[in-house]
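Researcher: For the record, we're logging two predictions in this thread. I'll number them. Prediction 1 follows.
Model: Prediction 1, sequence and structure:
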Amino acid sequence: QVQLVESGGGLVQPGGSLRLSCAASGSIFSINGMGWYRQAPGTQRELVATIQSDDTTNYLDSVKGRFTISRDNAKNTVYLQMNSLKPEDTAVYYCTMYLKPQRGIRYSSYWGQGTQVAVSS
């Protein structure tokens, strides 16, 4: 059974920083893409950042230059460094990984439970 566990959320003032982590555990054969999504109350979940197995990254326009996604393959972990945070970044942040739990089984998307980020003075 694969589990993704996020950490690092919290309350921060505008202009502050947070670092989110998401570690995958359980039966994992291979991980392809990793990413972060967020969902604010009353809105649809939106893609924040992705990182592929070749370290190619992609960002939501509104976070470019402020957020950085990275991965540690040895630890099956993805990170999201968030700087210059704004109130509009307030949301529940979810990590996702496209992984193969065992040889011979297809890749599937797995999700974390979400971690709250609140940006307020």
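Researcher: Logged. Prediction 2.
Model: Prediction 2, sequence and structure:
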Amino acid sequence: QLVESGGGLVQGGESLRLSCVASERTWSSMGWFRQAPGKEREFVASISGNGLNTRYADSVKGRFTIARNNDKNTLDLQMSSLKPEDTAVYYCAKGPLHGLGLSVGDFDYWGQGTQVTVSS
């Protein structure tokens, strides 16, 4: 089970930190996705099981940072310089054991999502 938290309403340029807690330890890659109204769910970032490798969507590169703590079974997404186009429901997900997931189909367990709204 994956449970996200940390969403909310912020103004453009501000920061927000999302967290995801897993009910059990996993060494699989993990990722964050987001889905805006009327749009498909899209990849945001992923991190390898050991936390050493990361991947980001071009739209968030340099502004978002993904991190994990395997001792606490947590996955975080630090978001800075937020823009109105970052508004979406954000989901954490468990990905493949090896490598980094990139597409929705690479991930098999999903959280319920947390809403992030960025006002202009």
